[in-house]
Amino acid sequence: MLKKLMKITLISMIGGSILFAGSFNAQAEKDRKAFVKYFEKKFENPVKNQAEYFPYVTKAELQNKYISPISFQGFQDGPLSWYKPSKEQFAEINEFAPYEIPLDDGIELFNKPFANGKSYSNCFPDQSIKQNFPYYDTKRDDIVTIGMAVNECRVKNGEKPLKYGKGDLAKVVAYIAFKSRGQKINITIPSENAAKAYEAGKKLFYKQRGYLAISCNECHVQSAGKRIRAEALSPALGGTTHMPVYRVKWGGLGTLQRRLAGCVKDTGSEKPKMQSKPLKELAYFLTYMSNGMKLNGPDTRK
Amino acid sequence: MKKLLLISTITVALFTGCAMKNQNAPISSTDVAAAIASAQTKYNLAHEEMVAWGKTKSLIVKAKKLAATDPKKALALANEAAYQADTALAQSAEFEKTWRAAVPQ
Amino acid sequence: MGIKAKVKNDIATVKLLVKHPMKSGKLGGGKGESKYINHLSVKHGGRVVYDMYPTSAISKNPYIKFAFKGAKKGDMITVNWTDNTGATEKKDIKLK
Fold first, then answer.
1. Which one of A71, A298, C48, C76 has the largest count of C-beta atoms within 10 Å of its C-beta?
2. What residue in B sits closest to A266 (Cα-Cα)?
3. Domain range for residue A279?
């Protein structure tokens, strides 16, 4: 009798925990759906929505230079998704995409064996994995990014870790991103601490700070579809699909964290260090917002 | 009338003279150290909340470097850093009340 | 060096993405490394169809696009460049 009772209790506990496992992302899912709805509504018909969303843009420009409507997957192109002149410029640049050179280097680096004879393929037998990063590792209670995974593979095989953000690490990540093209982003929130990390990232995105007292949301949600001086602002939806990115400004590849850190610095706050907690939380939040979008990295941007 | 004018001129001259005298008074190293320490504490608070401005840390570093050779400039830099940190914290408290309203619902 | 070459009617369009640092040598107070392509030429059927003498002003990993007449599908073209340090690269490709 007691054994039966214990069995029932155990099964119901496990069953209950499986049932509730998905509930850690309840708030995040609500946020994400509202996020997508906002952008789809905004770019559905810019001419019609001019008064609400684009009060300082002329009707002529809305009719001639804006692309609409933008499908959910269409947002993966960032500023090129809504602004025709940018899209045409980049179609020209991507005729022979500048990221192809560092990508070729990345393929070479990935296949080159380590000193101990093994290579990255031992750690990543299937390279079509970038859609799961960054993920929350419940065992070590921390966010793991693709850059961290690459360096952990190196250290496990007796190699020195690479510098984050650019250079050889970005090239290896570019290869993994290339192999993951077409996969849909699938970030999960598996525990309460992961949900807290998500909320922390959300606050970093929406709360104003720094010398300019500005938040990411002011440019990339509220002002997506407008311009800041001559630059077309990209929507935050789909902002992480094309990483690592070849930026014409850098003349090279850079990872998501490199891009985010640079933007945080430009808005008057302290530049966060690579793989620091706030930067990872921001990347975690931002990538979650693009769940369901297909990866299209590496790509070219200004 | 003339008497009033005379008294007021002398008073103003005295005050200006005092102010000018204080301007040229040497700045003690304890004042500079205190200002730098205060700026550092305020910056640390702002940094923990991740709201510190971008240049604050470098101002304090510079102030520490100049503390011995150019105390006047070091004091000015430390005060600027303290102001930046104070403003950052005050702004953070204000924005804490309003940022959730900007999240798309 | 990446090369893409297509032929339509009589005209071949060639795109090159050359991997080269293109350093002017003017950085670092004029003491920086100077290494840039100073001659790039493309030959088709024995004649030179594109002849370029870049200066240090051309940026890193240059993208070069040009067209020429008198080409057929399946013809070979040879791209050849030298830089101011004497390094060279040569690549042949078939026109598609």
1. A298
2. B54
3. 96-302
